[in-house]
Amino acid sequence: MRITIDGPAGSGKSTVAKEVSKRLGIPYLNTGLVYRAFAYVCMQEGLEDERDILRLFERPPHVVPQVGETLVYYQGKEISPLLSSEDVGRVASIIASYPSFRERINEFFRSLMNHKQFVAEGRDAGSFIFPDADIKFFITASVEERAMRRYKQLKAQGIEITYEDVLRALVERDERDKNRPLYPFLPPKDAIVIDTTNLSVEEVVERVLSQLREYNRKL
Ligand code: DC
Predict the structure, then answer these.
(1) Which parts of the chain fold into alpha helices (H)?
(2) What percent of the chain clears pLDDT 70, i.e. is strictly above it?
């Protein structure tokens, strides 16, 4: 089965997608992590020009979707643990606003997951990357709740930041992701929407799994 889980930053989509991948034993593709990997390489190599960034697809990061995690390597080194900072997220959001970059990365994702069963998670996994996925979810929560979750996550990683800074960065990122002219970030029309503001992770996972059971019963 090909499942997509989309949602804004801090909605809990990664946590839920990872858990669903583990329960079903199928690979997990974190598309945001791959955007971040390209952003990281741009930062390392000082690339800003859209054309130079596109040339990265000649030697892209090596992406390995596994059950419960997506691993990313660049020049033989695992870079997945280096990608969670706000700085990398900000650059990822900037390169994500280049239409030509999105087109290339979408092709990259499709060829990576060709003929496979998967849980793919991101901003547009169901709307633009895998429009013919079998079942699509859209997971969301209030902006304050999302900022609080992100803040706790960053704190737990030992990153020094205030809640207000996280909230500000999140609002800015939401705006940029929503207002880009091509491929704006919008819920897929045919997605099942889950608002997680007052739900635990387990409750959200249960809702997703019960929808999947329902889908399978109807096959
Ligand atoms: O989910 P995240 O914060 O790791 O994603 C980082 C950035 O990448 C986000 O600001 C927007 C972009 N992105 C995207 O535009 N489309 C995706 N499918 C995934 C991420």
Answers:
(1) 13-24, 31-45, 50-54, 86-95, 99-112, 143-156, 163-179, 201-218
(2) 99
pLDDT band at 140 (very low <50, low <70, confident <90, very high): very high
Residue whose pair of structure tokens reads 């929808």 in the numeric block: 211
In order, the DSSP letters of 36-61 are: HHHHHHHHHHT--SHHHHHGGGGSPP
Residues 65 and 129 sit within 8 Å (Cβ to Cβ): no
Q: Give residue 23 CA to ligand 1 midpoint distance, Å.
A: 24
User: pLDDT tens-digit profile of 78-129?
Assistant: 999 999 888 999 999 899 989 999 999 999 999 999 988 999 999 999 999 9
Q: Mean pLDDT throughout 70-78?
A: 97
Identify the residue whose C-alpha is closest to ligand 1 atom 9: 93
125 alpha carbon to ligand 1 midpoint, in Å?
10
Atom of ligand 1 minimally distant from the CA of 128: 18
Between the CA of 87 and the centroid of ligand 1 the distance, in Å, is 13
